[in-house]
């Protein structure tokens, strides 16, 4: 509150910020975020002590995260489990619970698309990263996460507890869940992913033994891996269901990715579906609101302007994503063919859906795969029909909530959803 900010909106100046790593520091931003989650100054000093050569613990943690999430053996192992979980969750019998608004067995189920995407994606990620043990100690973890995720922006804006009681309550329950998880014997948590085990070992090596300090670190990781993908899936299907021609085009392109036994070739989707890739990038361009941040620690010059120490830099990348000189005269509109018509856009310095430079989101590879998996399986296995409003009118396309400074993929305005009636079309496995 009351602090001075520099706002940078040109791609040239953003590149200059990335290059000036001595005057413009990202570490204080991370310290501030971790402090919001309850880490003490003592713990933070340990995390940012450069006793590992020129690197501190957070540098090593980020390197481990890239090792897990970038293409390679560790991503293959995680991806196999994660995508397998999505596959299982999209069996007809698994479409159940609060997401189902009405059901008539084989004749169809009426579902909330928002809740369906959230349940499948977050549950699948939870089991892939933390194993089943987390649910043994925290069966309500998903409900608490969704409540926190919806209001988490209030944490970064330093809302006092009396002004955001639900958010703080959900945060406390999430952190308590991971404290209980860490208290379990390690032999009961062997199905956790490599990165979770690496972070836990790193916490121990750092000498952080208090659960009040270790648990928030895992809760931060949990939110990082879960906050965006389910919203991307929601917008992908929202646009597809409201545009029959677009839906048909995507269905036709992805059809060869399915094998005779019903299994899906992710490699085919990644390498042979240019329209799907363009559609995905356009969803990111339209629905994502990423923001880059740095702290000026030494006087420097960017774009001919002198930046003074102690001020923060904000880089709202979404403004660049709507630049008509880069993305065309229809930059303010949704155009699923934009990136296939101009293949250079995906490498444009004006396109930063995952940030850039050393702080570029390492989860971008897995995010694409989980969204592809979910969307492809839903389209392949189910016939989907939009349900109109209560008065019998046409289904209304949901509005994005532009009022919340999410820093990531935006959700719909509260109360707006896509209601869909689904029927079995193709399914492998038990019903």
UniProtKB/TrEMBL annotation:
InterPro entries: CYP450_sterol_14alpha_dmase, Cyt_P450, Cyt_P450_E_grp-IV, Cyt_P450_sf. It comes from the Eukaryota. Its cofactor is heme. Coiled coil: none annotated. It holds the Pfam family p450. Keywords: Heme, Iron, Metal-binding. GO terms for molecular function: heme binding; iron ion binding; oxidoreductase activity, acting on paired donors, with incorporation or reduction of molecular oxygen; steroid hydroxylase activity. Heme binds at residue 361. Belongs to the cytochrome P450 family. This is Cytochrome P450. It comes from Delitschia confertaspora ATCC 74209.
């Amino acid at each position: 509150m009351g602090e001075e900010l520099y706002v940078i909106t040109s791609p040239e100046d953003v590149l200059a910020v990335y290059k000036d790593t001595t005057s413009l520091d990202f570490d204080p931003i991370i310290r501030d975020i971790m402090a919001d989650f309850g880490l003490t100054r003592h713990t933070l000093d340990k995390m940012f002590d450069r006793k590992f050569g020129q690197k501190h613990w957070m540098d090593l943690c980020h390197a481990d995260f890239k090792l897990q999430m970038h293409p390679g053996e560790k991503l293959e192992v995680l991806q196999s489990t994660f995508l397998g979980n999505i596959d299982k969750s999209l069996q007809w019998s698994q479409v159940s619970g609060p997401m189902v608004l009405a059901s008539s067995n084989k004749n169809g189920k009426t579902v909330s698309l928002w809740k369906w995407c959230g349940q499948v994606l977050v549950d699948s990620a939870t089991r892939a990263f933390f194993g089943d043990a987390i649910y043994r100690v925290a069966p309500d973890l998903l409900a608490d996460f969704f409540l926190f995720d919806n209001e988490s922006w209030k944490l970064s804006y330093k809302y006092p507890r009396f002004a955001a009681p639900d958010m703080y309550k959900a945060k406390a329950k999430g952190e308590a869940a991971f404290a209980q998880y860490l208290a379990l014997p390690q032999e009961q948590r062997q199905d956790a992913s490599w990165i979770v085990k690496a972070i836990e070992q790193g916490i121990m090596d750092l000498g952080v033994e208090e659960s009040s300090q270790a648990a928030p670190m895992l809760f931060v990781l949990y939110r990082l891996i879960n906050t965006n993908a389910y919203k991307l899936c929601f917008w992908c299907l929202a646009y597809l269901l409201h545009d029959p021609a677009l839906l048909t085009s995507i269905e036709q392109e992805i059809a060869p990715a399915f094998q005779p036994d019903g299994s899906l070739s992710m490699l085919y989707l990644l390498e042979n579906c240019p329209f799907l890739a363009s559609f995905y990038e356009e969803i990111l361009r339209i629905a994502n609101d990423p923001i880059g941040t740095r702290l000026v620690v030494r006087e420097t010059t960017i774009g001919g302007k002198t930046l003074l120490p102690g001020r923060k830099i904000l880089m709202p990348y979404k403004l660049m994503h709507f630049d008509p000189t880069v993305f065309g005269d229809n930059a303010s509109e949704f155009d699923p063919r934009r990136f296939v018509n101009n293949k250079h856009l995906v490498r444009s310095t004006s396109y930063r859906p995952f940030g850039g430079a050393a702080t570029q989101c390492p989860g971008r590879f897995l995010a694409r795969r989980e969204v592809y998996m979910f969307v492809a399986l839903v389209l392949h296995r189910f016939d989907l029909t939009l349900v109109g409003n209560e008065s019998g009118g046409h289904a209304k396309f949901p509005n994005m909530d532009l009022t919340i400074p999410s820093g990531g993929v935006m959700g719909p305005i509260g109360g707006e959803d896509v209601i869909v009636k689904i029927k079995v079309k193709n399914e492998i496995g038990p019903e």
